[in-house]
């Protein structure tokens, strides 16, 4: 009789989810750079709204081209919750992008896998190990190094930017745990369509309230952001659906390479040595969490 591993989707044992994840990180990093190009020229609520409004149009096209798909009441219920979390993540992260250098923002957002440990415990009852607690302390040590280094270099970071980047890490971790929990129910086009469309609907009142006129170039930029964001999100969701989050987490750190490159080429930003040192600590902490350890708090029964 075939064992349990044989019953899992074939992609779980292949390199395909990891490769798709790496491509998704590149695509989403490109989107972040485009968002940062707006700076403070547009209200942040308008930027986030238009990102999802344009994205909803792209996701609708994908849904129609790949149909037919079934959208159930369960789909709507679970995606409403994730959409709210997704909106908060975008608001926090885009705000941080417009206030801080790209590399610093991405580095602080790298704490998301660490927060996943605690959130997975709360939402899914997963075990917490001594190794995981050590990783949390090491990761936050890395955050302190980044913050201290940049303040020492002339105050590049600001308190609101730091708080926004770390808040984005918390909400992103929550979104990833919820996606992992619900991804088996809906197809990737349905997941993307509902999350993007519901996010746009949630943000419509504030987007209209804080509306500022757009140039033709800004409209084209939002179209590019929508395409990159939608397909990047679809690839990310596909990867999380067919491979364990702990296996894919280290691939997130390729974002540091793209953030450094885009920041240097497009914004003339050079990461401080302390930023890179903090990034090493944070990445090391998250790699530690990918390895199992003896449970300090065992898995809670559902």
Topology readout:
Blueprint: H1 4-7, H2 16-36, H3 44-66, H4 73-99, H5 102-109, H6 112-124, E1 128-129, H7 130-152, H8 159-182, H9 188-209, H10 216-242, H11 245-248, H12 254-267, H13 273-289, E2 295-297
Antiparallel strand pairs: 1-2
Explain what you see.
With 302 residues, the protein is mainly alpha-helical. Helices cover 75% and strands 2% of the residues. The chain has a two-stranded antiparallel ribbon. The longest helix has 27 residues, at 73-99. It is globular. The two termini are 29 Å apart.
In a few lines, what is going on in this structure?
The protein is mostly helical. It has one domain (18-297).
Beta-strand content = under 5%
Instruction: Pick out the low-confidence regions.
Output: 1-11
Count of helical regions? 13
User: In sequence order, what are the helices and strands, one letter per element?
Assistant: HHHHHHEHHHHHHHE
The dominant shape is globular
- Strand segment tally: 2
Instruction: State Rg.
Output: 19 Å
User: Portion of residues in helices?
Assistant: over 70%
